[in-house]
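User: Could you check the structure of this?
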Amino acid sequence: YKQLAKKPVLISDVQPDLRLKVVDYAAKDYGYFGVKSDYRLIYNKRNPKKAKISYSIRVGQPSVYMEIRYPQVQEGMARLVDSLESTSLLRVGAQYNTDTLSAERTRITNVLRNRGYYYFRPEYIDYQADTTQQKNRVDLRMRLTPGIPAPALVPYRVGRITVSLQNIRGGAPDTLHLPGQTVVYQKPLKIRPKLLAKSITMKTGDLFTVNAQNTTLSNLNKLGIFRSVNLG
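Assistant: Sure, the predicted structure tokens are below.
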């Protein structure tokens, strides 16, 4: 240590058993189940205190989807889920892949949140994979997790729209009624009412969608006259 100025690396620091577990978990993420892995120490003949580690990993054929079943949902959501199944990222015969499973769960959530199911979240969907029926084949079942909050399964529509404008220096309060919108502001009003109404893409009675919410937020920020914009 004094001569080389470098601390020796111990086998206990390398943790080969832990490394093999990481390999096993990573292989399963991509459909390689039943991976056989091992390691052995190769000692230096001149110095038995030194050794190399030789890893051995035997990987078979990846597992593919044999059957894919979408979740059973309540009547109001059933037609929408049927359409999602027809455009699924998951295909029978494709290789099992947890990245694709995660992407499909996110895709479903995004579609639902743009169909009024504002409170739906990706974690409300989970998967059950059965690999016991046939070698290298996976029966996949998608389901809604138990105990989902009731609001997540109900489509919401836009109700009354109230816009509140506040001046930095304050001002006398006033109210302006636009088609489908009520504007509560402090005088003087520093934006044309028609421009404000045009910037808000959400309309009373429409399904509440994340896209419309984000578009409205973006439109208001692009006006360049507000210090901050909040939707709630």
